[in-house]
Amino acid sequence: MKTKSILGFLTCLALVFSLSFAQSANAASAEEEVLQVLETSVKALNTSDSSLLSSVWSHSPKVSMFGPDKASLFLTQGWTELDKSNKTLTNTPVGTYNFTIHHPQVTMLGDNSAITTAYLTLVYTDSSTKAQDISQARMTLVYQRVDGKWLVVHNHSSMFPTE
Amino acid sequence: MRTKSILGLLMCIALMFCLYTVPSANAASAEEEVLQVITNWAKASIASDFKLFSSLYLHSPKTSQVHPSAGIPFLYKGWEVIEKDWEPTFKNPTGTVDISIHNPDITMLGDNAAVVALYEIVTATSITGEETITQHRVTRVLQKVDGKWVIVHDHASDLPLK
Fold first, then answer.
1. For chain B: N or C, fewer Cβ within 10 A?
2. Percentage of residues in chain A having pLDDT higher than 90
3. Under DSSP, is residue B69 helix (H, G, I), strand (E, B) or coil?
């Protein structure tokens, strides 16, 4: 009887441990998935791959972006406008824009929303003169999980303030 | 018998109508609650009310903030860090501030919400009274925690000049 009780207790303990481990493993994997989306979006920009960039965004009329420069609208809103804006970057020869992400951080907001923050350096190379310009920006991306897939719903990118 | 059937049918329709309208009423109310937090942020800043300001944020290490000012870390991470940065400004204001919020747009993401808006901030120093006007693009991400909407992330930036 005593042996049975101990066995039962140990089984319960193992079950609790497994459940707790599975939960943290899931959380880690969700963070990794979100980070992967961030990395994919940067890869798409660096390789001028508009379809790859399109695949990480939600195509909803509610998506929005604060761009880093004056060329963008105050607020680009809706997938149709955002796609146009994205294509001004991806319709350039590969190597025109080179983004590097620094210190990316993922914050999970429940099971279906997340944000990432990162510091970016951007090297712009003029395709004809090969002249280069370097700028630094801060970027916040907001994500939503739709049908099991993490998609970007908002981007706020701003140049690093200098004064 | 026929009257009973018609009555039954009407009751079913009324029930379906009620079920249909209740979720949309809740959704509208969630947006209103989120907007209230956004409005209260401006109220707290104008009145230098740190208690109100503090109540609008999630007091967690995951709360973060990207500032429009230069010469500071690119990201403040954790409520304690944010509090340390803002509290002196509220406790010892160097002048007055007025904030108007333009075109707030809310995207509901279940128990989270993202708000974008243009903030116009007029500051006046108490010594000279000189006024400065700045415009910021602001993203705030909110989360509903224990039935209350709180800010978990801010990103404010100047309007781009080039």
1. N
2. 69
3. coil
User: Please, which pLDDT band fits residue B5 given cuts at 50, 70 and 90?
Assistant: confident
- What element of type H or E holds B125? strand B112-125
- As a whole number of angstroms, the distance between CA B8 and CA A39 comes to 57
Does B159 reach chain A within 8 Å, measured CB to CB? yes
Q: Is the interface score ipTM higher than 0.90?
A: no
The label of the residue with tokens 């979006």 reads: A41
Which residue out of A62, A119, A139, A142 would a mutagenesis test of the B interface target, given it has the greatest number of B Cβ atoms within 10 Å? A142
Place of tokens 């919400």: B113
Tell if the CB–CB gap between B143 and A110 is shorter than 8 Å.
yes
Question: How close, in Å, is residue A107 to chain B by CA atoms?
Answer: 7
pTM value is 0.83
Distance from CA of B129 to the nearest CA of A (A): 22
- For the stretch B84-116, pLDDT in tens is 999 998 998 888 999 999 999 999 999 999 999
- Would you place residue B35 in the very low, low, confident or very high pLDDT band (cuts 50, 70, 90)? very high
> In this structure, which topology does domain B2-158 adopt according to CATH?
Nuclear Transport Factor 2; Chain: A, (3.10.450)
Domain range list for chain B: 2-158
Q: Which fold has domain A2-159?
A: Nuclear Transport Factor 2; Chain: A, (3.10.450)
